[in-house]
Amino acid sequence: MNRRHLLMSATATALGLARPAHAADLDVVIIGAGVAGLAAARTLMAAHKNVLVVEARDRIGGRAVTDSTTFGFPFDQGAQWIEAGKANPAMAILREANAKPIPDRQEQTLYISGKELPQDEYARFEKIAVDASRKIAAALKKPPPLAGLGVTPGKEPDVIVGRLLVPQDPLQQLAYALVGPLEAGVENNELSARDFTRQPDTEPQYSVAEGLGALIARWGAKVPVKLGTRVVRIDSTGTRIEVVTTGGELYARTAIVTVPTGVLAAGPFGFAPQLKAAKLEAIAQLPMALYNKIALSFAQKAIDAPAGRSVSGLTRKGQAFDAIVRPYNRDAAVVFVGGAHARELEEQGGAAAVSFALSAMAEIYGDGLRGALAHSFATRWGKDPLARGSWSMAIPGRAEARLVLAQPHHDRVFFAGEATDPVWATRVGGAYASGLRAAGEALAVLGAKR
Fold first, then answer.
1. pLDDT tens-digit readout, 20-52
2. What does the alpha-carbon distance between residue 275 and residue 272 come to, in Å, rounded to a whole number?
3. What are the residues whose beta carbons fall under 8 Å from the beta carbon of 148, sequence distance 6 or more?
4. Strand pairing partners for 377?
5. Is 101 left (phi over 0), alpha (psi -120 to 50) or beta?
6. Residue 291: beta bridge partners?
7. What number of other Cβ atoms are within 10 A of residue 304's Cβ?
8. What is the C-alpha to C-alpha distance for residues 79 and 90, in angstroms, rounded to an integer?
């Protein structure tokens, strides 16, 4: 089953400044050391510009982080795959880091209440999925009015996916969950068909042996980054832009802001002059989706299944989940939850997420695995103050907000990040492509090589 994973957090290595940074000689200050910020920095450095990235975390990578030690295999807590590998701009990261892409296995098993579907139900599931895609495509050609639902239509026709996909039985419930919460990270009644369908198909989908977060940390290791430093204010009213941080003031000719929309909406730092109303509206119209992962490892063989098998199912309580069992041929499982269910588990705490994942696996593979649990970890991207979610999803009727967010502020402050990309948003490819775009915009202001 296809995935759009672009969650957060990065690798366990803390980088300091790679070279001395002098406030007076900076061409560009970049806020955020995720994929967008690193891509912008690498592009500008290749053009011989003096760059400094400011990062609030103690690591680089943004919403891409690999735990390489706890479970005996690389556990990507955030971004894990490069989708649509034949066209995804982020494949350049793999080439530049000399990493071999590993094709994602497409074998999938489906379970309802702990029982695998009979073979004829697999065919019906496939038909449900195909029909759902056709319904969405047809509705976008002549969408029903959104105004009746309290949504003001934007410039492009749009429709709320939940109005089209109303499950009538458990199999439809599972199939439709794989559209909204387990794919987009939001419920179908919050999902914009226009925003959801703007991207190319996800096949082929690739991972990397070391983990995508670890790869991104290695790829960006030579970028000068000031870690553990929060931005307080970006003032572009003077001759040079002043970036006030918890570590002092920085001055540069241009700036690039790459933080997630959830962080921008929370207002951790100010702008002078203030952001225009259209920019603020765009931020509000691109709230953060939520997609969390629960990793489980076992002290003995507890799951009888081929290595790397993809599992999707509904529990006996009707809760949808995805999972990869025996990743890297290990006695382990990674369970995925999204949307409202993920938020509910976050509110209850990490133990609740682990308990859910164990129960979901036990319904399929037996209660014996409970006693074999050795290690566990549940991501909580919604509770992370430097992410506040996994990726951006436009509210219905406002898919064009991505283009508005991407517009420069006061001529010399540029915006990047997956939320600003009209094609690859929610994916690593969107972050990467937006970083290149923002770097190009900065270079246009800075001029040729000095």
1. 344 458 999 999 999 999 999 999 999 999 999
2. 8
3. none
4. 295
5. beta
6. 338
7. 10
8. 12
Q: Which two tokens stand for residue 388?
A: 């506040």
Contact of 250 with 43, CB cutoff 8 Å: no
Counted residue by residue, the chain has a size of: 450
DSSP assignment string, 402-430: HHHHTS-BTTTEEE-SGGG-TTTTTSHHH
- 308, 327 contact by CB (below 8 A): yes
Instruction: Characterise 129 by phi-psi region: left (phi > 0), alpha (psi -120 to 50), beta (else).
Output: alpha
What residues have CB less than 8 Å from 7, skipping those under 6 apart? 63, 64, 77, 78, 79, 80, 291, 292, 293, 379, 381, 387, 390, 391
DSSP 97-158: TT---EEPP--EEEEETTEEPPHHHHHHHHHHHHHHHHHHHHHHHSPPPSGGGT----SS--
Cβ neighbours of 160 (radius 10 Å): 22
pLDDT given at position 24: 53
pLDDT in tens, 324-369: 999 999 999 999 999 999 999 999 988 999 999 999 999 999 999 9
Closest by CA position to 370, among listed 349, 381, 384, 356: 356
Query: Measured between alpha carbons, how far is residue 183 from residues 65, 146, 296 in Å?
Result: 20, 23, 21
